[in-house]
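Write out a record, focusing on structure:
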Amino acid sequence: MKACVLTWGCQLNEHRSEEIEGVLQAAGYEIVSRPEEADVVVLNTCMVRQRAEDKVVGRLGELWHLKKRRPLIIGVGGCMAQGRKEELLKYSAVDFVFGSANASEIPALIERALRGERAVSLPHPDRIERLPVRRRSSFQAYVTIAEGCSHSCAYCIVPFVRGPMRSRPMGEVLGELWELAEAGYKEVTLLGQNVDAYGADLRDGTNFARLLREAAKIPIPRIRFTSSHPAYMTEETIAAIAEGENICEHVHLAVQSGSNRILAAMRRGYTRERFLKIVERLRAAIPEVNITTDIIVGFPGETEEDFAETLSLIREARFGTVYVAMYSPRPYTAAARLPDNVPQEEKKRRLEAVLEETRQIAQRINEEKVGKVEEVLVEGYLESKGLYHGKTRDMRTVLLPGDEGMVGEFVWVRFERATPGALYGEPVKEPVA
């Protein structure tokens, strides 16, 4: 039988889909990329935003039309399943439901569905499954270091659908990194909802800085990590990033708002001043660091003055990229009990204002790179542009001419022009030191 896995959400979900494919492959399924080719379709979902849920529901409608034409088993799992539970069975397309921490059960759930049972298995996410992985790339890899989060920001559903913070033992993480090094992987991203809190639940002295220092000893050219929480970023972690030769100069540090009043209402655990101090320390220790962030606009009670503080923080911090979203109430969260009192049109206006501000900043930052030569890991071909694309160490997108043999390789590139979203360049010989 053939199986297809569809994914929504964060990089942790992307990696979980690699694990789901690994589980299915180990059970004898052939993995295909299109639902039209599959006998089984598994939807690995997200519910951090309402928009993500809406996309899943829309896809279920499409799959239902496919299912009416031929036999097809459809399973829904991940965060949306953990949050919505048996409610998902109201969609006729759905044959089985699984949660955010029991992917190993999927083959058994498919067997039950084949027997005509609409099975649901949603254990509480309180452990980390060690699963086989079908990696989608031969040169870039994800490694989960922790799952869940125990911080409980007012707007965030992660603690409810992913469970409390669970760190993998450091030896296990390092063992996987060594396996990837021996297999020739060039870039690995360490994953966790809150990587800076890594080890806090192990109570054996393990912390994120120690993990980074050990990872820096492993012969993988580039090691990245995401996501960082400002309340848990330490001087020790900043030093470990600065000192590790293979630790990339990129920190995704989600600020969410520039207003102390809104940060307190969000239960973020830091102030605007504390956040900007971290930015200052990162830049002092790592001059070339690219700091990116997340912003939520329209949180309950956000006034025009609060929003103006967010815009001023964006200008002061000079983020390389800002991922902005309009607030949407999430079930189970503290903020869901608050009136969603910022009108939708005003949320849209604020979102566009953030995007315009960040476009201008990104344009100026990228223009400063023009004329420089940097190493780029080429990731693939962008058909719409007729160019290959890749990333610098500090996570800036680069577009360049080339050939298929460049994919998965490091290429030196001279940047010739800049846009807010990318640098355009030409391959050159390795610069002489």
Q: What stands out?
A: DSSP finds twelve helices and 19 strands in the chain. The chain has a mean pLDDT of 97. The first strand starts at residue 2 and ends at 7. The first helix runs from residue 11 to 26.
